[in-house]
Each structure stands twice: as structure tokens, then as C-alpha cells.
Amino acid sequence: MKSLFSKNYFSYMRILAALIVLVMSSSIMNAADPTSPQWVSTIVQKKNVVLEEYTGWRCMHCPDGHKRAQQLAASNPGRAFITNIHASGYGSPNPAEEGWNLVTIEGDTMVKYSGLTGYPAGSVNRSTTPWAMNRGSWVTVANEIMTQNSPVNIFVKAYLNHVSRKMIVEVELYYTANSESSTNKLTVMLLQNEIIGGQKDDNGSGVAYYPEMHLGVINASNSIYRYRHQHALRKFISPGGPFGEDITTTTQGSYIYKKYELDIPQTIIDANIPVELEHLEVLAFIAEGQSNIYTGVAVVPSTEDLANLTLISNPEGAGILTGADDYKKGEKVTITAAPSSEEYTFINWTNKNGQVLSTNSSYELTINSDTVITANFNFEKRYYAYLTVEPDEDAGVITGLKEYYLTDEFCQLTATANEGYKFRGWFSGASSSPNANLSLKMTKDEYITARFVAEPVILSQTHNVTVATGEQILLQVNVKADTCGYQWFKNEAKIEGANDNTYSISFAAEQDAGIYFCEISNFAATIASEPIQVTVTSGIKATTITELKINPNPTKDNINVSLDLEIAGNLNISLANILGEELLGFYNKFTEAGTFADNFSIKTLPIGTYFLKINHNGNVIIEKIIKE
After folding, report:
1. 48, 145, 425, 488: which has the fewest Cβ within 10 Å?
2. 166-194 pLDDT, tens per residue?
């Protein structure tokens, strides 16, 4: 049995194509990345300072580091930038004192590489060995760095949608000189200001270093204050772990553009610290490798230059749409629409006023403000004919099957039998039709069977047979065919009740001789076997066995057999059922001439008719035995 489906290869390929579009669109829907500087300067510039301060809320002297770092940045606006890296130990949380968990995996890794021996400490552009230095040295080292030329300039733009919490960060690099390393490291961090939490602040004499950041007292005896944490490292935006991603084009005149997109979560690590969008900043810097930061810059994400594109499917769920997202204003975007199933076809794109924008499923537009676009689809209910050919597809040919049918459309099929088969009919649910041409009105999916019947084929048969009287005659035909009937004939006359593929006579008599054949028929055809000549020869020589006596007969338990043998020879006595099948073998020996007598038990046999078979030197006598 084989099933053929009208929902064919083409239908599945359409869905596959839609999924491919969905996957690919995330990388191709936007305009190509710029290949020349848009904002970054191409003129040699001095290095900017990036101060990575290692801190923790349990560190009593760390607020002094915070204050010194803030003063450094305030004294050098646009030239010095800070990140506070909260590390394990002094950063381990304690909710009872509002000591929130600001520790990051990347931050802990950077601390291990920094070589610090105490808190607070910081690295200024990772320019010393070890990187970490006492807070008293920060300003001196920073001032020296800001006098040096940087081989590379950096520019950062960040955009943030406060509704969707989507952030886009763009970074441009331009090399005004060759880097000393063929592979540099670009790091982009997400920082957060105004995180309110506990901080120990005590110069050792009970005096706070940075009271300007206090909002109240949490534990006076331990000098724990409710504190405004600034520039806290929350997560890395760039890939590559704590030291950023590789930049492999580092020669003079090289331009590199990087774009990062991320969804800002509600919290990071510690559920007690909400990620407040208005307090975020982005810090980016480029380093020679893991050490020696060339320059960096920090920016506050803009909420003015980002627009949201919303795509709506009409009807809902009718299409697979790609391109909905937040974009820079003025950015070109390609949106795509694909039907979610074969029952939908794309019509057009329309704006919020219903104006048709395009009839192409792929449409490019420029995003200048928040935009809503609808993809419209037409729905046509489709029904499918699921066809099964029995016994298999080699039985016949079905024509007219379509991929699908619309409501009230007719499914029109024609069945043609192959050689050796005959078409029997169509079957669908409780209905059937013997007509080879089927016309079925489609109001639902239909499961249709086209049934063919194979003509009978004789695989083997009995040929001419010669038996002696009293022996069994067994005639047989073996046929390959669907369900069929049998009728045996003798000398052209029907044998009543002979309706199986075998015909047998348990004990042949001379009148059973003749010409036999079997007629085989089914729905497809009627055929006849070859004639079978049956010859019955005499099996008894009267002079061999005389004076045969069997008693009692009928009997309940035993039978007594006596006879006279005129000559010596092999004597076989057995009992058979009416089918000629031997049930009991009583006697089988060479026996001298003379009188033979013996007693045989049939206690184990049920009541019925049996045949006692006596065979002496090939001469056979059959006697009926009745068991009461």
C-alpha cells in the first residue's frame, strides 16, 4: 500500500523558504556597514585616559578612590573616563546592609590580571606593570598619558529606546599611524550610574571620605552609608571576554566600523539592582593587546535618534514578518513578509492610514520616526485529497490529482488499471463508487482509496495422478490473487462442495478415475487450471488375504482382527480418519503364511467413523469401523 499526497513537495518548500528568509533577514535587512569614516577624526589626536578603578562596597577607603577618580574626570572633560569594577571579597553581597552584588565575571578576571595588592587601586590605561597602582599615582600617570599621540582614534554613538529597552552602539576606529601590534583589542562596556546601595566610608578616624555621595545611614557603628555608586561595570557589550574582540587591521589609514545591538534586561545579576535606562553610559576603548590602552571614550545613550519599526500581520498569524526593531533615524531597512501557511497569499504593505506602500513581499524603507506597517494577506481555505492506491501503486494509474482544492471545488480523478489488474472502485469514508471517473465536491479534507484487484495467477498445481484403490487422491492449485473462489470439476461436471484450493478423496475407488480441473475466480477474472488425469489401479489380490473377520463392529474399546494369509509377506494394519490421515499403527511386520489374529485397542479415540486399512504385499483392504 502506498499513499500519495496532494500537499506536495512545492508546499513544503514554500514554508522552508519563508524560514530561510526569517533567519537571513537579521543580517541583511539593514543598509550595508559604512566603509569610510562618518564621525571619527582622521587627524592625529592625543590619547584619552581610561581609569579602571577596582573597588567594593565593603572597602572603607574606596570612597576616597571614587572621589579622586571623579575629580580626575571633572578636571579633564572629554579626556578622562572612569569605570568602577566591583570585585569579589570587598564586593561580596550582604542585603542586610544593602550591599548589593555588583561583581561581574569579567571584572574578577581583570582584577586577577591587574596585580593589585590592596583597595582602592586602579589602572590608568593599563600602562604600567603591574597595571594596578595606588590612588595617589593616578593623576600623575594620567597627565603623562594625555600628552602622548594615539595611533588610533575612536568615536562612539549609542542609541536607546526606553519602551523596547533596545540599545544600539556604533563604534568607529581610524588609525592615524601603525599600531605596534598587528592585533588590537576593542572593548565596549555598559556602565550604570546612581545605583543606590550600601558603602563603607571611613578614613580610619570615623570621618567619611565622600559624604557628597551619602543619602543616609544604614549602619552607623560600621560606617555603612546609603551611597550613590557611579560608573559601575554592569556587563560587556563587545564579544571576546574581559579583554574585548580582536581588531586585525591596525595599519595607518585603516578604518573599522562595529555595530552592537542588545536588549537591556530589567536587572543584571542582582534582582535588587534595577537597570535604570536613564543612568546608563557606554565606555569603549582600544588597546594594543590586553595591556596598553591607546584611547577611549564614554557616552550617554541618546533617546532622540532611535525610532521603532512595528510590523503587523493582517490577519493575525497570517504571515512571517522580519525587520521589526529599533533603528537609527534615517537608516534604510528592508522588511520581508512570507505566508505562514499555503492558505495565505501576500497582498501588500500599508501604512497606518491604509495607504499602499508596496505590493512586493520585500520592501525597503527609510526609518525617520516610530513607524507601524501592516502586511496584508488573502486567505483561501484549502482542502487536500489524501490518496491511497491498493494493493500498491503498481496496480493502476490515477490522474487528475491536484495540489489542493478550494471550497466547493470538485476533485476529479480517473483510475486506469495496469495489465493484470481490474479497477474495483473508489472508497471514501462510508461512500464508494465503482465508476473509474470520480467527481467529489470538496468541503473538507478527503481520504480516498483507489482499489484494484489483481487477476488470479496459478503458481503451481497437481499434474496427472495414479493411485491404487484405497489410497488417497490429493489435488491442489496454488494461486497468487486477492480473495478468490474455487470450484473443482470432474469430467466437466461440477463437484458439489469442492470449493477450496485442494480437493481430496480419502480412499480411492476405480470410479474416482477421470479428468479433473479447478476453476478460480475473483472480481478481476476467472481462470481454470490445466486438466489433471487421475488413474485408479486395482489394489487388491483376492488370493492373498482370505477369511477376514473383524469384531465387534461397532465397538467401544477393542477390535479383533483375524485373517488367513496364502503366502508370507509384509503385513501392515493401521487405522485412519475419514480424511485418510493415519491415527494408529497397529501392526507392521513380516508375517508367515497362515492364520493371523490379534486384538487392537481404540479406547483413546472419540466416537465416530474410522477406516481399518490392511496392506499385505501391496494388496489393500479397507473396512469401515464404528466407534460407539
Report:
1. 425
2. 999 999 999 999 999 999 999 999 999 99
